[in-house]
Amino acid sequence: MTEREKVVVIGSGAFGTAIAVVVALENRHDVTLLGRDAALMADLRVDGVHDAAMPGISLPDALNYSAEADVLRDAGIVLFAMPSQAQADAARNYGPYLAKDAVIVTCAKGIDRSSGQLLTDVLERELPHHPVGVLSGPGFAADIAKGLPTAMAVAAVDAGVAERLAQTISGRTFRLYASTDRIGVQLGGALKNVLAIAGGIVEGAGLGDSARAALISRGLAEMSRLVVAMGGQADTVRGLSGLGDLVLTATSHQSRNLRFGILLGQGGEPAAFHGGLVEGAYAASVASRLADGLGIDMPVTDAVAAIIDGRLDIKTAIQQLMTRPITTE
Fold first, then answer.
1. What pLDDT is stored for residue 274 in this prediction?
2. CA 50 to CA 56: how far, in whole Å?
3. Which residues cross the membrane (predicted)?
4. Binding region for NADPH
5. In terms of domains, do 149 and 240 share one?
6. Which residues on neighbouring strands pair with residue 177, listed in sequence order?
């Protein structure tokens, strides 16, 4: 059994709440959900439900709530569960409150748009004295909070840190696998969102299940090429944070990236989507630029970026993908 830890989850959206719930559920650790809205935190404490993020799901009695950054001062593990583009600002804002030995974990699935950096690099830049890990994989927030069986990956440079995180955050229905491949785990999480948009476009345009299968397999090949080029491991791509998350997000209507793609496939404009933040819309252009700089061929990712930016219509994108030079798999 692991020692009792103080864990703080920053970000009271759906995923942050779900992770806080699953860690607090068995009362093995001291867990606090830290949000910016003091009134919301007070309501959660009294009501025991988070109707905006987790309607109908009871929050554990053992879960604490706060809007005060002081709760970070003695926390050993701090999970950053805000969107990817907000992580740098969050690190700057909360950094002064962190315990000197706190381990930081990003839970966002994206790439920093302004710098083109992976989120662990962003957090290390802002918090250079803290070990930084990443949690990613095939897990919808609602499934996690409901206690449905879910497995994900957690990665850190130090294998001991990764193992500590896996042991602390895992529970009876939530299983984490430890990894030292932060690059592979992060890129899998970011790129599967882009490919889920592509899957939605296929569905929305009525292109059939065969096209979806081709997209998933060729998208996985693109993911693998970029992961290896950036120093990650091909094996990671075939695991939970790569293939696992891609299959889930590209096939389930719980995925807002898929729903966004369906809208595009039906001829809708990106601005017409009101289903929440679409991380893949940010990641597409950044991943395309990264691949271009490394000389990596990523035609599906490039097409998604061009469609979102209005540089390419769907019919032309499909024609271009289907008339590329024949090559080996």
1. 87
2. 8
3. 7-25
4. 15, 36, 109, 141, 256, 277, 279
5. no
6. 153
Domain containing residue 196: CATH number: 1.10.1040.10
The catalytic position among 6, 100, 146, 192 is: 192
Residues 253 and 174 in one domain: no
Domain boundary among 151, 180, 209: 180
- The residue range of the domain holding 262 is 183-322
- Mean pLDDT (whole number) for 134-153: 98
SS3 33: strand
Indicate whether 328 belongs to any domain. no
The alpha carbon of 190 is separated from its chain's Cα centroid by a whole number of angstroms, namely: 7
In tens, the pLDDT along 270-298 reads 989 988 889 999 999 999 999 999 999 99
Between 275 and 75, whose confidence is greater? 75
Annotated binding-site residues read 11-16, 36, 109, 137, 141, 192, 245, 255-257, 277, 279
Q: Are residues 179 and 242 in contact, defined by beta-carbon separation less than 8 angstroms?
A: no
For range 291-316, the mean pLDDT: 96
User: How far apart are alpha carbons 198 and 262 in whole angstroms?
Assistant: 9
Quick one: 151 and 236 in the same domain?
A: no
**Is 146 annotated in the active site?**
no
CATH of the domain at 123: 3.40.50.720
**Of 152, 180, 208, the domain-final residue:** 180
